[in-house]
Amino acid sequence: PSGELLAQVKQVVKVGQGVVGFGRNISGLFKHAITVGKRVRTETNIAAGAVSVSSAAVELALMKIPESSYATAHMLVIGAGKMGKLVIKHLVAKGCTKMVVVNRSEERVAAIREELKGIEIIYKPLSEMLPRLLLLK
After folding, report:
1. Helix ranges (DSSP H) in 44-71
2. 15 Cβ neighbours under 8 A, 6+ residues apart
3. Predicted pLDDT of residue 23
4. Per the confidence metrics, is the pTM higher than 0.85?
5. Which of 9, 11, 16, 132 would disulfide-bridge 22, Cβ 3.0–4.6 Å?
6. Within 10 A of 14 (CB to CB), how many other CB atoms are there?
7. In what order do the strands lie in the sheet with 98-103?
8. 53-132, what's its fold?
9. 78-118: per-residue pLDDT in tens?
10. Domain edges within the chain
């Protein structure tokens, strides 16, 4: 299925090249999506079977740090909705024990903290963090 999606994105780029308004920026975004899709397929086990987006994201992120750091590194998770909660659970399954969760409100973070006792989960309000972030294009 993820291979099919990648093929569909490639088709959009091909068709879009002749469409007014599909300029260089949009074309560049789609090409970047294709590159990321290929990378995810080659660097994770997503093509090996039923793998969720959240588990693939965790697998890709953890490739950036040594396994010996999993238990001591603070892992930043943005959002405490369904996807954020799944990311946290996958991180815990890999041995991560310290999370910093940026969310609009503390309610969902507190619920996750209650469910995952023994895991350090620090809440940071989105409103406090936004002014401190540098967003890259």
Report:
1. 53-62
2. none
3. 74
4. no
5. 16
6. 10
7. 74-78, 98-103, 120-125
8. Rossmann fold (3.40.50)
9. 999 999 999 999 999 999 999 999 999 999 999 999 999 99
10. 2-48, 53-132
